[in-house]
Structures are given as C-alpha cells and as structure tokens.
Design brief:
two-stranded antiparallel ribbon; 42 residues; 2 strands; alpha+beta
C-alpha cells in the first residue's frame, strides 16, 4: 500500500516490489479490509 495517491489505494506484492499494482478506489478499501478481517473471525 502506498500514500500520495488521492482517490485510490495502490497495492503491490511486497515480495515483487517492481511488479504489477492493484489500484482500489479509496471508498472501497475500508469495506474490503473489513471483510477480510471478518473472514478471519469466522
């Protein structure tokens, strides 16, 4: 995840730092992470 990109959250695999980037709209990032955390609790 990187800062400095208004309106998007770019995410890259830390094991491949120069690889492709997934870009999520900022408004969908928090619900996405919340769902991931909810799945861990289930």
């Amino acid at each position: 995840m990187a800062d400095g990109f208004p309106g998007i959250v770019p995410v890259r695999d830390s094991k491949v730092p120069h690889g492709p980037v997934l870009a999520f709209p900022s408004a969908s990032w928090a619900p996405f992470i919340s769902e991931l955390k909810a799945d861990r609790r289930a």
